[in-house]
Amino acid sequence: MLNLDLIRDRRSQIARLVLLLCAAYFALAFVAQAWKARNLNQVLVQERAKLEQQEARNRELQEQLEMLSGKEYSVYVERVAREKLGMVKPGDIPVFVVPNPQAPKRQQKVLTAGEEQTGTNRQSDIPVWRQWISVLLK
């Protein structure tokens, strides 16, 4: 009987050891999976931030596209091309106004509050069409 009790004790010890090893294995597997889940959540947060940035950029580009496809934009481009780049449409005659370097420079009086500019020879009193005629006929 002594032998039988010894065998039972050994079996019990082996069963406990196997049970302990299985518990340790499952505990390590659980920790590894929890670590992977944590890393995946961090990646998910980063990707969501990137997605928000891309969506914001997409909204900006959509607004630009809407602005560029409108009639106002074509008018704006034409105005800039004419004024800043000196471009003309086919059939237009470009006119360049060159200042006369020999003409005396006018001094402008700085007006203070309450003062009004007087006189009939102000540039703003002369209609624009007369100013053009005087420039073209000189």
Distance between the termini: 138 Å
State which percent range the strand residues make up: under 5%
Cα-based radius of gyration, to the nearest Å: 44 Å
Shape: rod-shaped
In N-to-C order, the SSE pattern is HHH
Oligomerization state? single chain
Query: Averaging pLDDT over every residue, what do you get?
Result: 82
- Main pleated-sheet profile: none
Structural class: mainly alpha
What percent of the residues sit in helical stretches (DSSP H or I)? Answer: 55-70%
Record field, number of beta strands: 0
Unreliable stretches (pLDDT < 50, length at least 5) are: none
- The number of helical elements comes to 3
Keywords: Coiled coil
Coiled coil: 37-71
Protein name: Septum formation initiator
Organism: Thermobaculum terrenum (strain ATCC BAA-798 / CCMEE 7001 / YNP1)
Indicate the topology.
Layout: H1 2-69, H2 71-83, H3 128-136
Structure description:
This protein is mainly α. The protein has a domain at 12-72. The chain is 65% helix and 0% strand.
Provide a quick synopsis of the model.
The protein is mainly α and about 140 residues long. The protein contains three helices and no strands.
List keywords for this structure.
138 residues, mainly alpha, 3 helices, 0% strand, rod-shaped, coiled coil
